[in-house]
Sequence to fold (230 residues):
Amino acid sequence: MKDMINGLKYGISFFSILPIKVSKFEANKNFYKGVIYSLPLVGLLLSIITVGLFLLLPLPLLYKAILLSIMYLFLYGFIHLEAVSDTFDGYFASLSKKDVHEIMKEPQVGAIGAIGTFCFVLLKILALSYLLYYQHFICIFFAFVLSRSSLFFALDLEYHKESHFINSLKDSFQTPIYIKLLFFPFSLITKFILNSLKKHLGFLNGDTLGFTIELQEILFLNIGILLCTL
Fold:
């Protein structure tokens, strides 16, 4: 239990900027299980913080909706957006038969990656600002948590041999059957996105997983908008 709690704490600190510290830990199977469960928990915590600040701040509605949409990106440290940049660069590099894996490993971001990431950020801020402004908070909770829960289903697939962290998670965890049944439609979306990326890139890694989380979050936010306007 202690190792799983350490994994939860490590995951929260890794996938967000929340001040959670883990001094010592053993990276065993229970630890990695905790890391896996921490990802949807991060979504829940960040949704509570985002909505809570929106309700508490004495600012004009439109202004604080946009402000908190931007602040949300800071709350998870832009970690998945970095993956978006690398995946865009890798995707378009695959069209010209370049070494996709080496390009995705490079620290600098290409022009296409920067433009693609900017579009993702814009789409996310627009959707989240709309839902905050009209106070459709339940849609935000679901989008933040469900997009990050995609990790449960993503681990069914094979990843590049150099993706040591993802492979450690995969080797330490088997998604419970009740989660697979409960979230079956979302597992189909996750695997469709990842398999489409693998078809073009030739492999999957942590960047493609981060890209999938970002894409699904935008998708779920916009589905929320659609449902709320019917």
Notes: The mean pLDDT is 91. The radius of gyration is 18 Å. DSSP finds twelve helices and no strands in the chain. Residues 2-228 form one domain.
